[in-house]
Amino acid sequence: MTSGRAFTEEQRHDLVRRICELMSEGMFMSHACKAVGTSRWTINNWREQDKSITQMLDAAWELGIEALAADQVQIADTPNLVTTETVEKDAKGNVVKRTSTVQDNVHRDRLRVYAREKAISVIMSRLPKRKDQGNTPANGSSMSPDDRTEYTEAQLDYIIEHGELPPDQPTEETTP
């Protein structure tokens, strides 16, 4: 754990980059923080102090939503087959009949899709609301809707990797 430890700006950004990589794959921030050995509380403090960290985390959340949605589609499109084998034996223990049944495990797939829907819902509630969704930031985010910028996927990847906007690439400001 990193409690009580002072970090340089470079170390903070490197740690946040590692957290963002995990978040962009669909992991929750608290789990990503634990995986890299720090606390969510520490990262939230850094987020309040440094707008570039806020941008990195928001970009990671958006990519995480896409990863979870892609995971849902993959689950729904891929059969989850379960094979059950039944063996009948005679009185001497010799195998008389062997039957295999293959079934699609629909109930488990539904549960997996439902879990990802919930994860997307939680992540969406933590992102700042877009201008077309109202004028209050979600869950006390430090970004107001006026600060909100739409990024391309390549720009989001660059922000996570480098902690800043890509050079010479204009962004599309959201309009009211």
Summarize the structure.
With 176 residues, this protein is an alpha+beta fold. Helix content is 52%, strand content 13%. Strands 1-2 form a two-stranded antiparallel ribbon.
CATH topology: Arc Repressor Mutant, subunit A
Number of DSSP E strands: 4
Enumerate the strands of the largest sheet in spatial order, edge to edge or round the barrel. 1-2
Mind telling me the CATH class? Mainly Alpha
Topology record:
Elements: H1 9-24, H2 29-36, H3 40-49, H4 51-77, E1 81-89, E2 95-104, H5 106-126, E3 149-150, H6 153-162, E4 172-173
Antiparallel strand pairs: 1-2, 3-4
Description:
- This protein is of the alpha+beta class and 176 residues long.
- The chain has a single domain, classed as Homeodomain-like (Arc Repressor Mutant, subunit A, Orthogonal Bundle), CATH 1.10.10.
- The chain contains 6 helices and 4 strands; from the N terminus they run ααααββαβαβ.
- Strands 1-2 form a two-stranded antiparallel ribbon. A two-stranded antiparallel ribbon has the order 3-4.
- A hairpin with a 5-residue loop joins β1 and β2.
- The protein starts with 8 loop residues before the first helix and ends with a strand.
What keyword list fits this structure?
alpha+beta; Arc Repressor Mutant, subunit A; elongated; two-stranded antiparallel ribbon
